[in-house]
Amino acid sequence: MSKNSDRGFWDSAQKHLIRYGGAFEPAIIERAAGSFVYDADDKPILDFTSGQMSALLGHSHPRIVATVSRQVAQVAHLFSGMLSRPVVELAERLAALAPGLDRVLLLSTGAESNEAAIRMAKLVTGKHEIVAFSKSWHGMTGVAASATYSAGRKGYGPAAVGSLAIPAPNSFRPRFRNADGSLDWQTELDDAFDLVDSQSTGSLAAFVAEPILSSGGILELPQGYLAALQKKCRERGMLLILDEAQTGIGRTGTMFAFQRDGVTPDILTLSKTIGAGLPLSAVMTTAEIEEEAHDRGFLFYTTHVSDPLPAAVGLAVLDVVEEEKLVERARDMGTKLFDGLSRLKQRYECVGDVRGRGLLLGVEIVKDRKDRIPDHQLGAAIAAEAFRRGLSMNIVKLPGMGGVFRIAPPLTISDEELELGLKIIAEAIEAGLAANTSRPGIAAE
Ligand SMILES: Cc1ncc(COP(=O)(O)O)c(C=O)c1O
Fold first, then answer.
1. Residue 439 confidence class, pLDDT cut points 50, 70, 90
2. How far apart are CA 373 and CA 353, in angstroms?
3. Which of 62, 94, 112, 265 could form a disulfide with 242 if both were Cys (CB 3.0 to 4.6 A apart)?
């Protein structure tokens, strides 16, 4: 019998864990290394989501293991008013990577970084309204949750006063179309801001955006959109906050996703990838905004702010990304993965769309490609078949969209591992379709 069926483990999990969303995978994970996690039978499972989109260097990268061991013995945590070398060094390194964003605050989680960014935006503008995308995810706490529209809004009482949303541009299902049928995002953006202006009480503080909405189903802001959004913000005296939790540190083929667009935000938040699986996040902003915030008494005093252990990990992550040329690698491997997934799209009618950038890609499962009718059931079946075959892929299920696989392997993934993942996806699609024989399935080639 499989050791994953350990009754004691699952009974205890059921008895003692608070369920926090979704179902648990049907395996007990004992260890992880590189691109794989290993279950209780020591079966390798290819991790196509880098843990929770974080393990940028794969699992248990020797440099991270060595850094944690060294730093935990030297100094891990300090009184929040004390500084250590890794903190100042990491701030300096990050500032050098994002010219103009010279000031850095080091925290632990993505939600926390967005809390701090929004708090700072409110303080320096003296306003309180925060606009975000309708399919955003910025975290599960306070104002970050108030700016999260893709899930979790119902049942928790009022969101922060002044929370406003605009539609996330969706090239696969355009709301406004150009003559050739493509997304007319400029008209959509103009229309959305007309609505923002009519709802606003005159207190617009900031727009918070992901360059690629990940939990929203891998919706990439079209080229030019970010610059147009920044213009809308400037016209209204709002700050632009970019949340690069998933896109930062090379994943999309540039160090930060905003660099493709040549748009530097007023405030940048980093998390997930900067700690490569350990809890580290950062808020970055201009010297001017930081001075203003400080003059107005900016307070974000937390237990783990400026802790040396995660800062040392962040430095090791940047070193490895540089030494192993992982930004370029994300671009090259991303192209290979995109091509492989596009071949699956040619082959299977149920693969409605392949999108994304670098090693942050999405595959949307639909009932038929012409009408783009979502197929959550088939998506869930494919994900389960893939897991059974040793591939972990995350699927997002959103109203109005099909099941979307989010594919974000470690940037260190090898060619063989990538091919293995593509092979398992194809097998899982075949198995998912076979379970539902009424479906046409294979596209005309
Ligand atoms: C874009 C983005 N921002 C913020 C968060 C929240 O980060 P955390 O879960 O570390 O609080 C997430 C988490 O998925 C995210 O995808």
1. low
2. 12
3. 265
Considering its fold, how many domains does the chain have in total? 2
Q: Which helix (H) or strand (E) holds 183?
A: none
Token pair 């950062």 is at which residue? 282
Q: How far is CA 87 from the centre of its chain?
A: 24
Task: Tell me if 444 is assigned to some domain.
Answer: no
State whether the Cα torsion 293-295-300-305 is positive or negative: positive
- Torsion angle defined by CA atoms of residues 421, 426, 428 and 430, in that order, rounded to the nearest 10 degrees: -170
246: annotated active-site residue? yes
Sign of CA dihedral 298, 304, 310, 312: positive
pTM of the model: 0.96
**Which atom of ligand 1 is least distant from the CA of 271?**
10
351 with 239, same domain: the answer is no
Spatial separation of the C-alpha atoms in residues 204 and 395, rounded to whole Å: 34
Whether 110 is in the pocket of ligand 1, judged by its Cβ within 6 Å, is: yes
Q: Is the CB of 271 under 6 A from ligand 1?
A: yes
- Whether residue 260 is contained in a domain is answered as yes
Domain boundary among 300, 323, 346: 323
Ligand 1: which atom is nearest the Cα of residue 109?
10
Specify the residue for token string 């007319």.
184
235-271 pLDDT, tens digit each: 999 999 999 999 999 999 999 999 999 999 999 999 9
Q: Are 289 and 40 in contact (CB under 8 A)?
A: no
CA distances to 261, 265, 440 from 224, rounded to whole Å, are 7, 14, 38
* pLDDT per residue as tens digits for the range 145-168: 999 999 999 999 999 999 999 999
In 44-192, DSSP assigns E strands to 44-47, 103-107, 129-133, 163-166
For residue 348, what are the domain limits?
Answer: 3-60+325-434
**CATH number (domain holding residue 295):** 3.40.640.10
